[in-house]
Amino acid sequence: MTGKSHDRADEGDTTTGARLASPLDRLLGYRLRRASMMLMSDIVSVLRPFNLSVGEASLLIVVGANPGCRQSDVGRALEIKRANLTPLVGRMKARDLITDAPIDGRSLSLTLTCEGLALQSEILARIEASDSKARDQLNIDQQSLLAALREIAP
Amino acid sequence: MTGKSHDRADEGDTTTGARLASPLDRLLGYRLRRASMMLMSDIVSVLRPFNLSVGEASLLIVVGANPGCRQSDVGRALEIKRANLTPLVGRMKARDLITDAPIDGRSLSLTLTCEGLALQSEILARIEASDSKARDQLNIDQQSLLAALREIAP
DNA sequence: GAATTATGCTATAAGTCATAACAGTCCATC
DNA sequence: GATGGACTGTTATGACTTATAGCATAATTC
Questions:
Q1: What global pTM score does this model have?
Q2: Relative to the CA of B110, which of A70, A82, B42, B136 has its CA 20 to 30 Å away?
Q3: CA-CA distance, A108 to A72, in Å (whole number)?
């Protein structure tokens, strides 16, 4: 046999190969997607040591900013469907980061535990730091950029 | 039993519920992701009648702009891993939209068929139209916006 | 010519997201 | 105060995307 274990030189290096023409490069949607994926992968790295997914972190952050909020409202705010929110909340409860209490017979109110609040502050600070770093490297007015993006997706 | 079949009033309306505070709204990464998802869902709608996924359409567009290009270069250009590109190309070959030919013993060259070229022009035009529509509704200089996004993700 | 690298392929696993259906609860209206 | 409709949470499931590991072959480099 030739190589035995790792491929090791799989993708990852952008060194080799011809540069191809791509009509996609001129599209706002494509550039948004690439830029989004770039920042998002930074956030994934920030979150990995805490064993949190992006969805879980979003949940912690929104619940932390809205103690006692309804689970259904969190779902709407984050555009996460009820069916997918349930296991997300379940995992955070299992880690004692979130507690829930019934509001009425059907609605649940969510609140961070002490531990959850500490974690939320920690990751929010790191995420904001990572985000600022990306924003500061742009030579465009950050406020008008954010406003423009808000026009696309309110 | 009460309701029998459709939930019908599941998510989809943003009417009800309290508006929650979200620290995420100030993050560039989060706004980029939302804006990206918004435009991307338009593109998915454009592509649905043609029975094409976003990945498949990207493949057609890049191969159409680079007849005879190497499959490996396409993968790098679109940041699609080899292992995932294979079935993508396979489906396009099965629909007679793409043909391949060996360059050397390992590399493949990809080219659109007549039918593939016609389809590529069609969807590229529609995607560009949808993209322009989104861009024109922004009150920010489109060129500096694209340049800024390119700074984030070259 | 031997080791390394490149390319394509297969199989598989993980993660995200959407849909359907169900059960319990609230509410408005009659 | 009963009843039908709407809201909420839950479960189960399937589709789709992406990542990883390994294999086979061919090119490259020394």
A1: 0.87
A2: B42
A3: 8
Q: Which residues in B115-127 are b (16+ Cβ under 10 Å) and which e?
A: ebbebbeebbebb
How many CA atoms within 13 Å lie on the side-chain side of A51?
4
Nearest in space to A146 (alpha carbons), one of B154, B21, B141, B30: B30
Model confidence over B34-62: pLDDT tens digits?
Answer: 999 999 999 999 999 999 999 999 999 99
In whole angstroms, give the CA distance from residue B145 to residue B137: 13
**Within its chain, how far is the Cα of A85 from the centroid?**
15
Q: What is the pLDDT of residues B99-138, one digit of tens each?
A: 999 999 889 999 999 999 999 999 999 999 999 999 998 8
End-to-end CA distance of chain B: 57
**Best residue of A149, A150, A151 to probe chain B, by most B CBs closer than 10 Å:** A149
Contact A17, B76 (CB under 8 A): yes
The conformation of residue A104, written as its DSSP 8-state character, comes to S
Q: How far apart are CA B81 and CA B85, in angstroms?
A: 6
Our CA-based measurement puts residue A18 at a distance from the nearest CA of chain B, in whole angstroms, of 6
Segment holding B30, helix H or strand E = helix B28-47
Q: Is B33 helix (H, G, I), strand (E, B) or coil?
A: helix
The helix or strand, by DSSP H or E, that contains position A14, with its residue range, turns out to be none
Chain position carrying tokens 């190497």: B70
